[in-house]
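User: I'm curious whether this sequence folds into something compact or stays loose and floppy. Could you predict its structure so I can see for myself?
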Amino acid sequence: MQLIWISGSTDRVRKINITAQSIAKLVAITCGVMVLLGVGIHFLGLRIAVEVRPDLARAMGGVVTEAQMLAIEDGTANALRPFSPNSLRSPKNSMN
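Assistant: Here's the prediction. I'll summarize afterward.
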């Protein structure tokens, strides 16, 4: 397929060939640029958010402080303690 472009009555006629390969290249380049732009905006925005409002960055980005991570680990350990191998053993001769 061709695209014919006439820009004026005295200008020359320009013909642009449109093929599946050229469209695929254009789509691939456009997608690549958009992905790189999105990644750049994401990391730049996260960096600015961490410097300006760290609490907002933690809420949106899933970033936790060391104290929060320790509290989460302690809570998980306490929740799993009843299921530990030592607590699942039945006592021997507990009927006496």
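Summary: The helical segments are 20-52, 54-61, 66-80, 85-88. The chain has a mean pLDDT of 80.
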